[in-house]
Write a structure and sequence with these properties.
Elements lengths: L4 H6 L14 H23 L21 H9 L14 H5 L5 H11 L12 H8 L29 H4 L28 H25 L5 E6 L1 H4 L8 E8 H5 L1 E4 L7 E6 L19 H16 L10 E8 L8 E7 L7 E13 L11 H4 L2 H4 L3 E4 L11 E5 L1 H10 L3 H20 L4 H8 L5 H17 L9 H22 L25 H27 L4
Parallel strand pairs: 2-7
Antiparallel strand pairs: 1-2, 3-4, 4-9, 5-6, 6-7, 7-8, 8-9
Length: about 550
Amino acid sequence: MKLGPLHMIMSKEFVSNIYHDISSTSDQKLLDTYNKKRNKIAEMLLKAGANVNQKDIFDRTPVFFANAISSVKLLIKEGADLNITDKFGRSVLLAAVSMENHKQLTQYYIKTMKFLKPDECQSTVFHYVAILQRELDIFDYLEGKFVKCDYLECKDRNGKTPYEVSRFKLQSEINKKFKHSLLKQRGVGAPWDDKESELIKRTVINFAEELCKAIGEKDKRLICTLQRSGSSEEGTKIGDLNEFDFIFCMGEIQKLCTVDDVNIEEEFVTLNANKDIPQTFTVFFNSEGRCKISEVRLAFSRAVKTIVLDEHIWKSKDIILWKLKNSEESDKPVVTLEIRLFGCAYKDEIISIDLVPAIRKTEWWPTKGGRCELLNQNDRIKNKGCLLLFQTKYFVQSETLMRISCSPVETELLKNVLPLYFLEGYRHCKLIYLWLVNNHSSNIHIQNCIKNNLLTSYMFKNCLFYVYENYKMEEKPLTPENSEVAAIELVDDILSCLQSFNEKCTFPVYVIPEREDIFVIKSFKQYSLREDSKTITTHHCKTREHVIKYMQEIHSGEKF
């Protein structure tokens, strides 16, 4: 990353939101004390020869990281150049609009800087304010700063004024009158900017492909192929494309192994070596020849960390690294990478990318999984097979059990089997729940639902499959005259299906109904804790019942 000591000390935040709400004199004193200590360290670094204008791999100098006015003043006093721009052409002023202390920082920079330059997209500070929805009182400080045009009339590279890109105009209320068009509404069901959203998609996919290639080059044992997954691949994403899922299929490990189904009604299998294990791979297997899940995950995580901290992976001019989150929990086989993207319509957009190492098994299906009708009727779908995730068993000291994922089949069903209006009905369900969470978070049932993750997109998706199967069995027409109306009406069936499973306190995964129950509390599934599991599951279903009813009332127009 080429971060110098000044970058590091300036990036240390005391409390992430303290600038928004300093509620007492003691809070202010605490913040001031912290900033003084930080500045003291910075002064020591400067006296020792630290470069006040050193750039990281994204061309940011230490002043880009400073969130306190006292720190900014110190750096300027020591020669910080405010005319330096980062790889996006952002000045420190434009970068400050995204920061916690944006109100004080923007006012200070506007007063201090001689000229207010736009970025490479020709976006001004007012474009940033409009897009990031910042309420800044900065008009009094702008006299003479813009010389070419009125600052509110300046246009970006796409010919848009700040008003035209403003997200303050976002319609967030669900209104029955607009129910048919919610999924198409910018910033609600649809991306804020369709054209640039597609650019985001291509940029992220290209980055993931480069990362996949680099992982194999870094560690030959981890040579892999890339498979897309999740809502961005299924075509069911709500709003902006800011979440992506990628499966990194470990081909070299797969060549050495066969699957042992262990013949139990669980969502796990083991991966066993089928011949002599090459020396370089022995660390991935135990004495019985079974694949050690944690060792593969660790090697994958190390490779990813090394690569993303190297400037060569960041070829795109539109993205920078933000955070790398490596889950320490055995039940989460994901490395999450957060990047920040800059364009004309999106500024400092946080994109979350889940990186999942797995084994891809085409034309393979677990025994005792049950048989759903859609798979029975179509071998092509069934032959998509499963993924085996490097995810160990919940609360059990086992390093060899791998979780079965049916995402290849689920994606195939959504993209190539179900009618398009089914996907729109599914998206409506997700949108209603999102609105409910955002607008009624004080409700105790919704709070508990959020806290315990009691309603998920995966539940709506499985209901969608069950409803489609019922439609086919009842020979209902699957090509309606008005698909928009049909999608709205489908929401009733999805929510009713979910409520029906909820009343029974059991929800079999559609594709492998005998091997996995969505409602089961995994941590209590084993040994002597089954009664506790039943009690808690029943309690959760009671909470979920209220929230599903709220969704049904919102959908019917009874509650807004």
